[in-house]
Amino acid sequence: MASPGHAPAPPPPPSRERGASALRDRVRHAGLPYLLLVPALVLELLVHIVPMVTGITMAFRDLTQEYIRNWGAAPWAGLDNFHIAVDVNAPVGEALLRSFAITCAFTVLAVGLAWLLGATAAILMQDTFRGRGLLRALFLTPYALPVYAAVITWSFLLQRDNGLVNHVLHDQLGLTDAPTFWLVGDNSFVSLVVVSVWRTWPFAFLMLTAALQNIPRDVYEASAIDGAGMWRQIRHITLPALRPVNQVLVLVLFLWTFNDFNVPFVLFGKSAPESADLISLHIYQSSFATWDFGAGSAKSVLLLLFLLLVTAAYLLLTRERAPRATRSRGTRRRKRVHV
Length: 339
Hints:
This protein is mainly α.
């Protein structure tokens, strides 16, 4: 019985109302993460999905400058644009194949050198010494600079008559008989690789430096007591520990480098020398120089399919090697325990 001066307590809600309220709370809490993802999904749809679908549609049309205002009215070409692109006996297919080969060679050199420089710097920066923080900051400068500002600076440095590179190599050191053309001819490929490596190796350095922090220093100290030198430590401790990070790092560097358009476009302009005719710039020329957007879209679709196949094969290969390496380490560990 309620005490005098106090209202009686309200009766408890029915079980059906309590169940409905709990269900609403559960739905509200479960749907909040998806609601927060809606802006990102909308931007992804507008920035990537819609242009990609539009480009794939354009690849099947005979889209030239006559249909720019209304590209949907362009006649249907079917697979003709793809046949022209892959016909290596014709001038268009031969030029595309040459550009593809140049891009493959450029990617292998740029990714390999960027990873090598990044790994070397990350390993050397592990030991504590005076000025290490300053060196790390300087190493990350190329990655922090805007790409256009950095590449434009390199284009001035590589000028034949008044560039700093020729001033040092020819005027100061006398290593060349005459000033070298770095942005035309066969040397343009070397210049492109140098600029690309300079741009991307700090990212490899940053990723590998973060990964090396997870390796206990006790492991190196124990191996040093057992007589292992620096090279044996790198081979048997550092590189195996970096394998998971390297798998992701190499894939990211490959995709960035193979698709790179900004560096060659800013370095050489709209028309790159033949030795530095990367496929991204080649597709740009096919689309915006000849106004044949159907052929350019077909080449872009072929590039997309190639990158998807390479990425899928790489992921399958690394996924199969990882369990095999884990099993082999477990077998060696059991053998040592048994002995």
